[in-house]
Amino acid sequence: MKFVILAALASVALAAPQYSYDAPAGRSSADSSEEVAILRDDRVHEDDGKYNFDFESENGIRFSESGSPDGDEDAIVSAGQYSYTAPDGTNVVVKYVADENGFQPQSDLLPVAPEFPHPIPQFVLDQIAFAAEEDARRARGDSREAPSRSYGAPQ
Fold this sequence. Notes:
Blueprint: H1 2-15, E1 38-45, E2 51-57, E3 62-68, E4 77-85, E5 91-99, E6 102-106, H2 122-140
Antiparallel strand pairs: 1-2, 2-3, 3-4, 4-5, 5-6
């Protein structure tokens, strides 16, 4: 019995993941522990829940935010921005608002969905309008007409 327990423990120990860190090409792992001085770290927390903070480090990272309990059920509504220099030298600036609609970042560098590739044909728009009218009639309780089995087709 002791042998089975010892064998189980040994197999669990051998099966444990073995982690190692490989530094990015051209950098040694010693370079990754570079210290960066904090140039500014101003924080204000008021008794009514409002707050502000500004942070800046010597490597160009900046972060500022302000917020207050203005949302539903005193949820915190905040706004701010952060900026840094990307590895390729691009200056990245992101402004954001976080409120009842979620986190809403804005930046020239964020991807944007392409425009719809073509106009929507009129028969499709007519069909959508017909379905909306039918749904509205059903919601009003106007059940004199049975639901159509083919939207937009002549009856």
